[in-house]
Write a structure and sequence with these properties.
mainly alpha; about 140 residues
Length: about 140
């Protein structure tokens, strides 16, 4: 893999803009475990090794079990995730892969029924934010720590 200039070095304002999204998320009331599940699942879909490593490590520090981390990409096949987490993961997959079929009304409305409109919007913004980080990390070739 070739070495590339980092966005943070070439355009700190662009990097700061995405950090602004993180600040918004931290003030939105989005649960930390919910956000870690979003970050890990979106990063798995996008193939972002840097983000998968970072967010699985941080999830362990928050108390997320190894089993729940390992089985996240097969969440539909297990009962390890709550109804709320399943709704978040479904929304994460549809927003991350938005070109496939958009965000289905059933998926979105289920999240609203479980969380309310405001929290659902925070979930969507969390998904948008990690997708931005994934794309920057992959395009810049961020190395694993």
């Amino acid at each position: 893999m070739s070495k590339r200039s980092l966005t943070i070095d070439l355009d700190p304002k662009a990097y700061a803009a995405v950090r602004g999204l993180e600040k918004y998320i931290s003030e939105s009331g989005l649960d930390k475990i919910h956000y870690k599940l979003i970050k890990i699942r979106a990063s798995q879909i996008n193939g972002c090794a840097f983000c998968i490593e970072k967010h699985t490590r941080e999830a362990r520090e928050l108390g997320l079990s190894e089993q729940r981390i390992y089985l996240l990409n097969a969440w539909r096949e297990t009962k390890l995730y709550t109804e709320e987490e399943r709704a978040i993961l479904a929304l994460t997959e549809e927003v991350t892969c938005i070109a496939n079929k958009g965000v289905l009304d059933e998926t979105y409305n289920n999240a609203v029924a479980l969380f309310g409109e405001a929290y659902t919007k925070a979930i969507v913004m969390g998904i948008v934010t990690i997708n931005a980080w994934n794309r920057i990390a992959i395009a810049d070739h961020w190395p694993l720590n």
